[in-house]
Amino acid sequence: MIEIRNVSKTFHTNGEIKAVDDVSLTVADGEIFGIVGYSGAGKSTLIRMVNQLERCDSGAIFVNGTDMTELKGEELRKKRRKIGMIFQHFDLLWSMSVLENIAFPLKLAGMPKEERFKKASDLAEKLGLKDKINDYPRSLSGGQKQRVAIARALVSDPDILLCDEATSALDPKTTDDILKLLADINKEYGLTILMITHQMETVQKICHRLAVMADGKVIEVGTVSKIFADPQNDLTKKLIQTVDTGLDVAKMAQELKEHYPEGHLLRLSFTQETSGKPLLYEIAKKLDISVNIVSANIKNTQFGPLGVMYIHIEKRVEIAAIISELTNQGVKVEVI
Amino acid sequence: MFSQFIDPFFETVYLTIVPLLFSVLFGSIIGTVIYVTGSRLILQSDKKIFRVINRVADALVNICRSIPYLILIVWLLPVTNFLTGSIIGTKAAVPALVVSATPFFARMVVIAFSEVDKGVIEASLALGGDLKDIIFNVLIRESKPALISSVAVTAINLVSYSAMAGAIGAGGLGFEAFQYGFARRNDELMFIATILIVIIVFAIQIVGDTLAHRTDKR
Known about the structure:
heterodimer, A: alpha/beta, 6-stranded mixed β-sheet, 4-stranded antiparallel β-sheet, 13 helices, 28% strand, B: 218 residues, MetI-like fold, 0% strand
């Protein structure tokens, strides 16, 4: 478990910048927790405080009960070995082969050569890197490099994995592969994962809960399904909209209105509790109306399908009943 | 004819290799101190004492690099006498050569270390590395090709400095070319001595380049 309590950090280079401002968060065991925000929001500083690559000015960070801010020297290094970390640019040592890179943390911990190479090659095999172990990072693709970095982070059997924009330098297909790998690791080992990203899509795909950060503060926290279905903050809405349709929501509404000048247009946001059911069909049957789905964007997440749907209903129909039916079922309805 | 080049040749080799060993040793230490004390990331602290050490070492390197080699020889006479028991001859040229090549190599070490990816240093710290690990497993390892090239460049510098060491009777090919070739108008001798120096320089460069290339896995 990671417990971040009221941490703050101010940088004094080029004037005063409050990078992290009184942040408190709790990440449960076995959870995948995402921190989202634009660059400069302070998420990078925050994640570095967890393993104390950045010291806090104030506050405390408990990792499985140990206050990281109190640790120094060898104690801190020992604890860091139980916190894996992967990075946007992979940060492998180019002078080492894949096997040596994976075994590197064990070398730092003083494990004998044969033992650490054995452990590293077993892990490499598990992550599909078996035929690459004697290669050097230069000959690997981005996705393979990140796999090696993941293996390196996992080789010392950490309790926690920190991901610093781990998929931001990868193409969409590779991103999905890496995210799937992280989700599998999370399930198989019950590994707690804390990730930061500026891509809402990444969070949507694998996180259980997320926090949105802006100007050093956490402005919204909740489960992915809840925040995606019902974002409170304007910034959160903005971040989600980039995922929803890949289109500007206002523009989408405008286009639909032009296309369907008559009748009612509704925007429905589904959460995991409702998406499995043939809800629209049931309501249409119950109220004896016809519903026309004009656009839908449903995505698969950790919790099953989530998404947004636009429906068109004929002018003569009274929509109040439909709205209340849908709202009762947990669907968020907006008239456009 | 060629027999007269044998001694100067080995004097030049001696005046290159012996000071090189000391310069690489001391220069690596000083360069590492400068780089590490200048890195907040590696130190994980911004204590004032480190900044002071950094400034002092940096200034020392600059000062030593600015003193002309001949002046250095004169200033170091007492030290040379103490260390080698003499102020003339091949051995006596070594301390001044070390003092002039060490800060040069130290600067090359700082430059080589600066090229190492900061992300890799950060990752190594995150994985539980300490200062010793960062220096030996990351900085030196990751900058090995650059360090090898720096050794080669420093060696070539020493070859040319050693010619000036003739002023205190150190001998060497450079002195041979000047004293017996140029001063006595023996053009042939001057030419051959110079060619031999060129061959030594080429040999150092080729060995350096080959080793640097072989260790470069980027």
